[in-house]
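re: ur question from earlier - yeah i can do the single chain one, its not a big deal. heres the input i used so u can compare w yours
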Amino acid sequence: MTPSPKLVFITITGTVVYLGLAVLGWGGFAAFFSHPALTVVAIATLVMSVVASFSSGNLSSGEREDRDNRWVIAALAVIGLLEAYLPAYTDRKGFWTLDGDSVRWIGVVLFIFGGALRILPVFILGHRFSGLVAIQPGHTLVTTGTYGVIRHPSYLGLLVNALGWAFAFRSGVGVLLTVLTIPPLIARINSEEALLHAQFGAEYDAYRARTSRLIPGVY
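and the output i got, formated as tokens:
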């Protein structure tokens, strides 16, 4: 595996900014790390960032890219920044919060599970995984394992991870922001599937016919 220096930089920088905004929203390091559940979330975030840095994922436009879909990256970035700060802030202020400290720990479990599901496909796809909607050199379909059940496990992981973050802060606003993540993700999925159909034709159609997009047997 040869990590992309650009992707490593973006991953690490993004993680620092994300956690920094959460700490700021909560009112400082001492207050943030006084909560065991939030401490676990912070540690898990750092661990996942380091692990992701060792993948072969990239930001290459490859041999063929759907450039019209790049707006999704900007949309998800804006939602991500809001999701980093607002759940922590609303938790501290007691605004639209979910009752019970157990909600935080449910959030921790969802956050870690979703993060693992988000990262695992990056390692499975290797150089074929790009932050852009693109066909890479030597691109082939992966149709086994998790991909034998759902076609976009990484996006499902992103949603579960985001929901877990919201629950860790007991934040109704965080749940709403997770819901707002769905439209740009669906647009991204539509773009990816159109590109894969154009590249692989009947092979991709057959694969698509026997699998679900995100939730087995549902969607």
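The first strand starts at residue 64 and ends at 65. not sure if urs matches, ping me
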